[in-house]
Automatic annotation (TrEMBL):
Segments passing through the bilayer: 290-312, 324-345, 456-478
Protein's UniProt name: ABC transporter substrate-binding protein/permease
Signal peptide, first to last residue: 1-20
Alphabetical keyword list: Cell membrane, Membrane, Signal, Transmembrane, Transmembrane helix, Transport
Topology class, membrane: Multi-pass membrane protein
Keyword hit for Zinc: no
Subcellular location(s) of the protein: Cell membrane
Length: 484
């Protein structure tokens, strides 16, 4: 019995290892420097996805031009802004370009390039708002995107003007919060607000002619590391400024019509139009979600089964180990666990872990803990007389467990396994925070591009409901077959 448990554990470890603790995913020639760069996925016009599902924006185009001019190559990994910055701080990536304002606080953690863009902070309200001045914000709530220069500026004046703050991780949610009246204003980089308004978002900028706290945006690396990359970036930036490429890129995004990048108004005017014009992106996101779900639930089931068997062991130490593991990972929020695995551990150990591996481990440890709890409960629910009868027939405790208790317990657990499958499917949405492009992250990218939050999220919700309905039907069919 113990040998089989050990074999199962080794097999599980081998499978997880197979998926790779890899930091860089691209092999390059020895004479060409290659870097992994993180970026904000939802910060138009600096970083966003176009109608062809390609990552574009001022940052992205500048980075490509600079890399070409300076003679290096990059792999860009878009994710939430805070995750992008922390990935560099924990050495998961080599650098970050994400509309990052150069500040003294950030200089303590990062080394910055020469400034590549000068910006200022603007504040905006709903289009029909009666608020006209900062003093009108007293006692009201302002929505901010975490980690941005706009958020930093708003925090610095909130006591002076007496407003409250609520935080979100992506820009579109901030704008919707203001438009829906849950908050009355937001602060952000002026070009960001101007772009989203040009794209049809019902906001109005209150200080377009006199932005606050003008500052510089810079490319950054972890302090004391990747100095060659920093030097190459500065070299390439100087080249494209001199040859006119820089001005062409900036003007391309600040002057062009939003429909150039977002698609036609007809495509974005209905749910069918959005689904039709973005069907490739939705399908890709769904496939990634299903892939994560299947791999996650298989490994989590094996791990949970292992924990459950340990939980009914005759050995008190093994039972205590099972209980402790289940307690820890059931009590830890999935998002915290994902950040801990993807950012926390590499920062301490220096070992790079890919976002996909961190995501799978998160699902396995979290979902496996819940699975282990109901597996243990399923075995304990088998009548005690079954064990007594098996032992009276001459079976050892291990044989009785393997041939009598486990088969009966597993039959009782079938509905719980299917239910956990559904829960795992929904939980994959949390992994978008570490840059995994699953269905929820796909929706976020599309909304950032076209500002059609209601329609896009309605489509995403329907896709989830269709898949969950199919899984529920499967659950009912399996349950009937096992009880037949």
């Amino acid at each position: 019995m113990k040998k089989k448990l050990l074999t199962a554990f080794v097999a599980l470890s081998a499978i997880v290892t197979l998926f790779g603790f890899n930091g860089r995913n691209k092999t390059v020639s020895a004479d060409e420097a290659h870097y992994t760069i993180t970026s904000d996925a939802t910060y138009a016009p600096f970083d966003f996805q176009d109608k062809n599902n390609q990552y574009i924006g001022i940052d992205q185009d500048l980075l490509k031009a600079i890399a070409k001019a300076a003679g290096f190559t990059v792999t860009v990994k878009p994710m939430a802004f805070n995750a992008a910055m922390q990935s560099v701080a924990s050495s998961q990536a080599d650098g970050v370009i994400a509309g990052t304002t150069i500040t003294n606080e950030r200089k303590a953690v990062y080394d910055f390039s020469d400034p590549y863009y000068k910006t200022g902070i603007a504040w905006a309200t709903a289009k029909d708002s009666k608020i006209k001045s900062l003093s009108d914000l007293k006692g009201k709530t302002v929505a901010l995107k975490t980690g941005t220069a706009g958020a930093e500026y708003a925090e610095s004046i909130k006591d002076q003007y007496g407003f409250k703050i609520t935080y979100f991780s992506d820009s579109d949610t901030v704008y919707r919060d203001v438009i829906n009246g849950n908050s009355v204003a937001t602060f952000a980089d002026l070009p960001v607000l101007q772009y989203t308004i040009k794209n049809g978002t019902a906001l109005k900028v209150q200080n377009a002619k006199e932005p606050f706290a003008a500052g510089d945006l810079g490319f950054s690396v972890k302090k004391g590391e990747n100095q060659a990359l920093l030097a190459d970036f500065n070299k390439g930036l100087a080249i494209i400024k001199k040859n006119g490429t820089y001005d062409k890129i900036v003007n391309k995004y600040l002057s062009a019509k939003a429909s150039t990048f977002t698609g036609s108004a007809k495509d974005n005017s209905s749910m069918w139009g959005i689904l039709k014009s973005n069907h490739t992106a939705f399908w890709s996101g769904l496939k990634q979600t299903l892939y994560l779900t299947v791999v996650g639930i298989v490994l989590a089931s094996l791990w949970g089964l292992f924990l459950g068997i340990l939980g009914v062991s005759k050995n008190g130490l093994l039972r205590g180990l099972s209980t402790t593991i289940i307690y820890i990972f059931r009590g830890m929020p999935m998002l915290v666990l994902a950040f801990f695995l993807y950012i926390g551990i590499p920062a301490v150990t220096g070992t790079k872990i890919s976002a996909w591996t961190a995501g799978i481990l998160t699902l396995v440890l979290n979902e496996g803990a819940y699975t282990g709890a109901f597996v243990r409960g399923g075995f304990n629910s088998v009548d005690d007389g079954q064990m007594e009868a098996a032992r009276s027939l001459g079976l050892s405790h291990g044989q009785a467990m393997r041939r009598v208790i486990i088969p009966q317990g597993l039959k009782l657990m079938v509905p719980s396994f299917i239910n956990q499958f559904i829960i795992t499917l929904k939980d994959t949405s949390l992994l978008s925070a570490i840059g995994i492009l699953e269905l929820t992250q796909t929706g976020t990218l599309i909304v950032t591009r076209n500002s059609q939050g209601f329609r896009v999220w309605a489509i995403v919700a329907m896709i989830y409901l269709v898949v969950i309905t199919l899984l529920t039907l499967l659950s009912n069919w399996v349950e009937k077959r096992t009880n037949a």
